[in-house]
Amino acid sequence: MNEEELQKKREEAERKARRGEIDPTHEFTFHIIGQFSGLLRHEIMDYMFNDPAMLDHLDFLFKSDNARKLLFYFQPEETRTSGLELIPRMKPMDMEKSAEQKKMMKKGAKNPMIEKGKEEEKKTTKKILFTTDGYAVPLNGYCMYFLRTSTKRTLGEETFQREIMAGLINATMNENLLWYIERSVSNVFIPLLNTNGMMDKGTDQLLFKVKKELLPCLRSFTSSLRVAELVWKEGVLIKEFPPESYTIKNIDDAFAFLKTDDGQRRFEEYLRSWMKKIQELLLESEQLRLETDDAGPQDELEYWKSRAARLTLLVEQINTMPCKMTLVVLRTAQCKLMKAWREIDVRITRYHVEACDNAKFLGAIEKSSHAIYLEDPANMKTPLMRLLHIVKMIFNVSTFYNTPERVASLLVKITNQVIRSCKRYITNSGRDSIWSQDRDHIEVKLTECIKLNDHYRDAYQKVKNRKVGRELREFSFSEKYIFGRFDAFCVRLKNLLGMFRKISLYTKLFENRMEALLSEDSMDEEFKSFDSSVRILTLKDYDYLDFRNTHFDKDYADFQVRIDILTEKLRTKLENTYDGIWDTPHSFQYLARFERLAQVLPIGGMVDKYQRMINTFRTEMDRIMKFFKKQQLNAPVPRNYPSTAGRIYWVRSLLYHLKHFIDHFEEEENLKQMPEYKKLIRQYNDAGVVLMKFEINVQESWKNPRIRQIEEMIAKPVLKSNVTGDLQVNFDTYLYNFLKENERLCKLDIPLPSINQFLIKKKNWFYEFKDMIDMMLFKYTSSINSVVPDLKKLFGPHLNKVRSALDPGVADINWTTHEWKEFTEACLADIEAFKECSYNEYRIYVDST
User: Fold this and answer.
1) Contact 805, 812 (CB under 8 A)
2) 706 pLDDT band (50/70/90 cuts)?
3) Using CA atoms, how far apart are residues 317 and 323, in angstroms rounded to an integer?
4) I need a labelling partner for 260 at 20 to 30 A (CA). Which of 102, 394, 396, 813 fits?
5) In angstroms, rounded to a whole number, what is the distance separating the alpha carbons of residues 14 and 28?
């Protein structure tokens, strides 16, 4: 881009700023850059106007679907143009001269390279802000990065801040650069990628790769950074060499140097200082290591990696020419210190080989150990088994890492990390407490962590008992030492689980008012006591998952005491309220509720309640049987019931009353297990036999059909004359009761003879026939009575005609005649004609008078 095009871009950016086209995404970026770099907004705008391409890069990040990152460098201007040429490279000769330069600095001389660097720094104090891809320009200032977490969604003006991740890398101080990178990856990117917040950021295949490939790589990368940072901070061990050692090239130069005054003594002083520092380093391998209580297997690996790196650096320093020439001079002079040096050199070699060997073998567990850092407890079973197999292999194959103490310590570290992963899983990486999450969800988490302890022990036992090839050592260690902390942690989890379950239980009991057995007003005091107990326990500020914290144990014990007192109050209130109900038939309505409460609360006294219910039923059976024996000869027949059906219905009601009780007993398994229940069943069976015998006897007395009597009743004429000569319905009362009796018996499902069944089918015939005769006689009687007495002689012929129409009912028509409808219709027609005639005559009579 030439100067003219750059000027046009600059002018266009200024016009956009004046027109207010700097949108919220730009302002958000300027604010972040200002926070990280300390620049003011107008200074940032000046840099943007000087390099308008930065605004284009911003628009590409926020508005394009392809952009994922944007880097801003704020550092001296020369580094942008000089590129990689500004990276200082130290030649081997310069490394040899560094010790001499440091010696000169101690004597007060100025280091020419430092002075040169200060002069260059004065020349390059001007810093600029620019964008870069991170490859072309080296970083020696501030790097402000902006990352998009997803390109699937368009960034809106209100949501773009949630989709952009910003950070800072400070390279102005070399000793902090590794610290910045390692902490950013460990504390920001790994937790973000390992949380459920990434579930909507990509496909299942991509998320699987992130979990199984990217995150393990990032963990290994940060582990290497921590090792490098540790070695960088400790620096080189041998920092000074004798100045003359740079000039000595062979044995002749050594002899020549020994002839100088104090030459040997000065070399011995250097060697003594080296031996002192080396001795301090070697003592770490011979002394007990100070470790944190929650150190994991990655810490063990990093320790041996850093130790191997430090010893390797020490060996490389010993192999440098100045060090070698120093030792050659002292060996030539037959210095007595060389004997001690040779011992130290042997120890260096042994410890160096040990550290490298241990780092190599422990590196084998790094890949398998990623799972216990990243996975949830439900997915750790297989990785733990694989990890224990590798530890067993190291124990049997490694030359140095084969002592029971070291391997047991490694297993403890694995246990520590499993505990930390469980805590991370329970608290969602520290973002939530156990009280801020859904109670059912947190109970599932606690249960999975407890199950993991069992799986871990099972895996250890399987690996321990499995023999592969010729194992030189038995893989057996103190289980209390290895699993003791996990067991203590699980005890804490079980206490928390019990606490949550009790809180959920009592919350539910108060919501449903103790299975609707108590009113809200009566439980108000107990609810306040429960709420106070929960509030006291939940407002503590300590870590509930720290099993070494004894404060929770005391608070949990107090909570248990309060809950026990509360339970006793509720139990007493229930007993006092429903004490008399167990001696009544209504006890079955409440028994199931009390049994459900007894499963979750120590209500007690259920056996006594069962005994009282059995005694109540036994008393009720005695009362029923006394009543039956007293009334069996004169049974109380229900209303509208015939005698036989009424007695059967009565005895069945008594039996049903007893069966209602026994059916409830049959539904209660706890009642059936009572010893008195068998006696109760025998008594019930005896009572049932007596009642059923009574019913059978009644049925047998009714099953005699008495066919002759029935034939006589239905063969009678439908009409008859009384003493005064008036007509009446000749329907036998016994036949009517017989039909009603059969109808009721049939409804009671009692088997009847065929003649009875036939009559039941014909009952509507008889009822309709009788009703029609009743209606006919009613109309006949009303028509005769409506005739005026003065006109009765006049209507004599008409009355005789009507009476003669009814005469067949007195002689020929009986209750089995099929032509009864024609007979009644003819009679009704004559009656209607007579009624009409009498009415007309009555009108004439009234008009004439």
Assistant:
1) no
2) low
3) 7
4) 102
5) 18
DSSP structure class, residue 213 = I
Distance between CA atoms of residues 443 and 403, nearest Å: 40
Q: Which residues of 600-616 are buried (b: 16+ CB within 10 A; e: fewer)?
A: ebebeeeeebbebbbeb
At 80 the pLDDT is 58
User: Does residue 709 or residue 595 have the better pLDDT?
Assistant: 595
Alpha-carbon dihedral 473, 478, 483, 487, rounded to 10 degrees:
150
C-alpha–C-alpha distance, residues 285 and 288, integer Å: 8
Please list the residues that pair with 451 across neighbouring strands: none
Question: Sign of the C-alpha dihedral, residues 638, 640, 643, 646?
Answer: negative
Query: How far is residue 217's CA from residue 229's CA, in Å, rounded to a whole number?
Result: 18
Which of left, alpha, beta for 429 (phi over 0: left; psi -120 to 50: alpha)? left
pLDDT for 165: 81
Distance of alpha carbon 513 from alpha carbon 815, whole angstroms: 69
Label residue 400 exposed, middle or buried (CB < 10 Å: 0-12, 13-18, 19+).
middle
Q: What is the pTM of this model?
A: 0.69
Q: State the pairing for strand pair 127-132/142-148.
A: unpaired
Q: Of the ranges 467-471, 595-599, 705-709, 711-715, which one carries the lowest mean pLDDT score?
A: 705-709
The highest-confidence range among 54-63, 65-74, 85-94, 269-278, by mean pLDDT, is 269-278
Return the beta strands (E) in 255-370 as ranges.
none
Distance of CA 553 to the CA centre of its chain: 25
Which amino acid is it at 767? Y
Helices (H), 703-819: 707-714, 733-747, 754-761, 763-785, 796-811
In order of 371, 383, 392, 474, the CA distances from 468 in angstroms are 25, 19, 10, 11
- Are residues 657 and 624 in contact, defined by beta-carbon separation less than 8 angstroms? yes
